[in-house]
Amino acid sequence: MNTELQVCDLTCASDEPDTGTEMRNTVKTKDVDQPVEDVSTGSGAAAAAAAAAAAATSDTESGIFSGESELCVEHESELDWFCASEQKLICSHCAIVGSCHGHTVTPLADRVTAARNQLVDVCEKIQLQALRIERFINQTLTTKERALQAAASRSREQLLVQVSTVREALEEEEQRLLEQVHTEEERVEQCLLTQRAHWSQALSNLAQTRSRLVHTLTHAADAQLATAGQEIAERVEEAEGVGEPCDTDQLNLNPACSDSKLLRGLWASAILLGPNACGSANLKFDERTVSPLLSLSDDLCTLTFVPKKPRQSPPYHPARFDYWPNALGSVSMSSGTHSWVMDVGQSGAFKLGVCYASVERKGSGNEARLGYNTQSWILAHYDGEFSFCHAGKHTPIQVVKRPKRIGLLLDWPSQTLVFYEPDSSTVLFSITHPFTAPLLPAYAAADRSITILH
Question: N or C, fewer C-beta in 10 Å, the chain?
Answer without folding.
Answer: N
